[in-house]
Design brief:
mainly beta, Jelly Rolls, six-stranded antiparallel beta sheet, three-stranded antiparallel beta sheet, 11 strands, globular
Length: 164
């Protein structure tokens, strides 16, 4: 059996080690919306609300429910981890380095590692709701996590401040 490359078959590989693979006992399996923990405002550099699913026993990724109020945005930031935002409700646009993309309910937004980015709520009346998933726990476990916020500034201002 090949353990890598073109001849590798995941089914055969898992079958060969099945006697050592055990179902995980990590719990809880479900965390209710009311159990999400709101991060203190002092930890967030923008007007969004971040509620973390901290009771989930995930070892390699973090899950948040993020709310951006009408007409507001997240901060301009970058980080070593990858992030995917699923738009639960709302519409807006994101700046990721020199790209600007519009999005709406049901869309997924990908933020690559170490790219300046900011997310905007384009509605004057309705909040934006994201399910935010990032692999920050994995990078923290490896000792290579880093996050930088430039605040409510443009990408050019963030780039300038990063070089000061």
């Amino acid at each position: 059996m090949a353990t890598s490359g073109a001849g590798f078959n995941l089914g055969e590989f898992l079958g060969a080690i099945s006697d050592t693979v055990r179902p995980s006992q990590a719990r809880p399996v479900v965390v209710r919306d009311g159990e999400l923990e709101t991060l203190p405002a002092g930890q967030i550099h923008n007007p969004t609300t971040l509620r973390i699913a901290g009771k989930l026993p995930t070892a390699t990724f973090e899950i948040f429910r993020q709310t951006i109020p009408p007409g507001e945005s997240s901060d301009m930031q970058r980080h070593y981890h990858e992030t995917v935002h699923y738009v639960i409700a709302g519409r807006g646009h994101s700046e990721v380095e020199d790209e600007t993309e519009a999005w709406a309910t049901g869309d997924l937004i990908y933020t690559p590692p170490w790219t300046w980015h900011r997310h905007y709520n384009d509605s004057a009346d309705e909040p934006v709701e994201f399910l935010t998933i990032e692999n920050s726990r994995l990078l923290a476990a490896l000792g290579i996590a880093r996050r930088q916020s430039a605040g409510l500034v443009s990408i050019d201002e963030a780039r300038r401040s990063a070089h000061d």
